Every structure is written in C-alpha cells, then in structure tokens.
Amino acid sequence: MGIVAAEVIVTSPDRNFVTLKLTTDEGVTGLGDATLNGRELAVVSYLRDHVVPLLIDRDERNIEDTWQFLYRGAYWRRGPVTMAAIAAVDVALWDIKAKRAGMPLYQLLGGASRRGLLAYGHASGKSLDELFDSIRAHLEQGYRAVRVQTGVPGLAAIYGIASNATTAANAGVRYDHEPAQRGALAVQEDWDTRRYLRHVPTVFEAVRHEFGPELPLLHDGHHRMTPIEAAQLGRSLEPYDLFWLEDCTPAENQEALRLVRQHTTTPLAIGEIFNTIWDYQLIIREQLIDYVRSAVTHAGGITHLKRLLEYAAQYQIKSGMHGPTDVSPVGMAAALHLGLAIHNFGIQEYMTHGARTNEVFEQSFTWRDGYLHPGDEPGLGVSLNVDEAGKYPYERAYLPYNRLADGTVHDW
Ligand code: EZ4
Ligand code: CO
User: How many domains are there within the chain?
Assistant: First the structure.
C-alpha cells in the first residue's frame, strides 16, 4: 500500500485548471480538482511545496485520517487555498478507493438516492429580448431550470451578462478573436444597487409572463447588497416564486442573514465562497438559508462537504453545489457522485465546458432531459489526457471587479 507519486497538473484548455494526480504502488491513479479561479498558482504552490511531500508513502486507504492530518496538521486552518488543496487530495483518494472497489464513487457513498440530478443553466441578456432568446436556447438544450441575470439600464458592464468581459473571465470562454481577455489585468465593471433593485423585479415579471409559472427560476445577487437591500429584493421578488435568491449579501457576518430572513420568504442560497462547515454554523442552525452553495472543490472535498450537507439535512436545508466552468470536470464529477448519493440534494448548477476542456478531460457523465448522472465507470469516471493537457500552458487570468459611479470599490 502507499502513494508513490503525486503530480500537480496545470492546464488551460478553455480556462485554467489545477488537477492533482495520485498514483499508488499498485499503479491505481486518482484525480482531484484544486482550481481556485483567479488565484490558481497559490494552490499549486500549496500542493507542490507543502502537501505533496507529506503524501508520498502514505496509506491511500485512510481518507478520513489524511483529511484530518492535512487540516489539523497544518496548524493554520481554513481558507480557500488550504481547503482547495485538501479537497484535491480527498477527491483523488475517493477516486482511487472506488476504482479499487470496482464501483462508481456514488456506490461507496451509499448508492443512488435518485435517477439523476436536476440541473440549472445560466440564461442572461442585456435586454429582455436577448434574455428571452437565451432562456429559449437553454430550454432547447434540455434545461428544466434556469438562472436569470439581466442587464441594468444605466450600467455598461455587469456580472453574468453574455458578451462582456465577465463572460470571458468568469465563464472561461476563450474567444479566439479576443486573446487580451486572458493574461490581461482585472477588468472593471459598474455597479449601482438602487438601479438594480428597481429593475430586477420588472424582469422577473416579464419572464414569468412569457414562460409561465412552472419553470424554476433562480437569480444570483453576487454579494452586492446590504442586508436591508437584500431583504427588499427578496420581498419584491416574492410574486415571481423564485427557486432561490443566491448570495444576496456577503455573509462573512452570518448574523446578517437574520435580518434578510425576517423580511422575506424568497428561498435563499449561499456559500459558493465558503470553504468549511464553520462558515455555515449559525446560518444552518438558525435556518437562515435553504441551499448550501459550496462546491466539492472549494470546501474540503467529498469528506468535508458530505459532513456539511448531513448537518444541513437536520434543518431541511438542501444542496445547491456551485458548478461554474471554473470547477473542472473532475470537480463536477465529484459533485455528481455526492449529489446522487445524499438524501438532501436540491439542484446542481451546470454550465457546459468548452470543447478543448472536454478533450483534456475524458468524462463518463450523462446529460439527458435536464438531468445529470455521473455514469457507472469505476471511480469518478474522469481521466486526464496528459498530452492534450500539455498543449495548454497556464495563462494568468483575473476575475473582474466592481466600482460605483463615484469610483468606490464595491463587492463583485
Ligand atoms: O462568479 O465561479 O453562481 N455562480 C457564480 C460564479 C462565480 C465564479 C467565480 O469564480 O457566482 O459565476
Ligand atoms: Co454565484
């Protein structure tokens, strides 16, 4: 028994991805995703310089012990860099264990609790016409739930709207005619909360009118509101029956959600930037949210996110794992296995990866009639084509940031 090799592979097919590949003395390999969008090389260093030396000769079977050793043994706890690195090790060990057992990972996690995972995609448009076209395109692709992001009159460039810098940097699309998006410094976007709060309910009214009451609609506030502004938005969206309102306010201060919750029955999702169970301690115990947004990749792997979701289950809070293109196919596969196995699955975010990414990462998952399934290959069901990966070296890329009209930096 024992790990004989641990390689950190950086590749940038359509965007940057960091992958950990572990090999055992029996030649079994496991993959883990360690991609932290915009700060990728910090995790590479954490892994290569500090974690890999600790892995060589470790017994790959002891997943819980390895998790505790990497978490407690570092002395310095939590944080996105640490937790993404631990997640990569954890997922690679689960991949190895499931391959050795000859089972898809979800079988080791308790077996399937459902036939497939309901997924939502990202519809967006600067104008209502563009937005409606985007929703229709998603429905044609088979999506049965959509996130709706819209332009705001008076704001030139904002989060989540196709054909601006956000899409390139955030969705990771490499426009061949726009190489400057990659390797460029962070792009500035605009923000004005009052304009946004006035406009968004009119958009949801129009979308409900056009697409009817059945379609689950989601919206991402992307941390921009104060608690009272978030409460106002939640309340003004109530007539449109949202599946959830995401990241309505930054929640480093968990108590802020009390104020939002007192004022609105719109379901709340939070936590794509959280990385441990402790970030959720109060908001779960007080039932201040409805969905946990953490991804396997950013919250300490299968071992830790499963623990967190079991805690959430006691309070009827469900999963809504983060699934943007900056979670690699390895991280997505881990999410699908975990989501299939747990009882309190809610919904899975799913944005399709680019063609180059799908050549670098061969995947067994299926996407049919709006539902995802991880497939039945032993392990995660993902393999990394090292030759393809080698064709795409790392390219520096930043997420955008926001400024208000007077130049003040605002949450992005
Ligand atoms: O901005 O993944 O809900 N999805 C999101 C994403 C995040 C990016 C940041 O890397 O908020 O689009
Ligand atoms: Co989000």
Answer: 2
Q: Are residues 38 and 182 in the same domain?
A: no
Task: Please determine, for residue 202, whether its predicted confidence score (pLDDT) is greater than 50.
Answer: yes
Assigned domain for 74 exists: yes
Q: Please report which confidence band the pLDDT of residue 182 belongs to, taking 50, 70 and 90 as the band edges.
A: low
Taking CA atoms, 342 is separated from 28, 227, 296, in Å, by: 26, 31, 13
The domain containing residue 74 runs over which residues?
3-104
Residues 251 and 369 in one domain: yes
Q: What is the CATH number of the domain that holds 59?
A: 3.30.390.10
**Same domain membership, residue 247 and residue 364:** yes
What would the two tokens of residue 308 be? 């967190």
Report the nearest atom of ligand 1 relative to the CA of 349: 3
Distance 74 CA to ligand 2 centre (A): 29
Q: What is the distance in A from the centroid of ligand 2 to the CA of 219?
A: 9
Indicate the pLDDT class of residue 124, thresholds 50, 70 and 90.
very high
Q: Which residue has tokens 């600067």?
A: 126
Say if ligand 1 is within 6 A of residue 40 CB: no
Does the CB atom of residue 325 touch ligand 1 within 6 A? Answer: no
Q: What is the CATH number of the domain that holds 347?
A: 3.20.20.120
Distance 324 CA to ligand 1 centre (A): 6
pLDDT, tens only, 25-35: 999 999 999 99
* pTM as predicted: 0.95
User: What letters, b where the CB count within 10 A reaches 16 and e where it falls short, cover 330-352?
Assistant: bbbbbbbbbbbbbebbbbbbbbe
| CA distance linking residue 118 with residue 347, whole number of Å | 5
User: Of these residues, 159, 196, 280, 350, which one is catalytic?
Assistant: 159
Active site residue 291: no
Average pLDDT over residues 321-350: 98
Q: Is 196 a catalytic residue?
A: no
Nearest residue (CA) to ligand 1, atom 5: 324
Pair (209, 347) in one structural domain: yes
Percent of the chain beyond pLDDT 90? 90
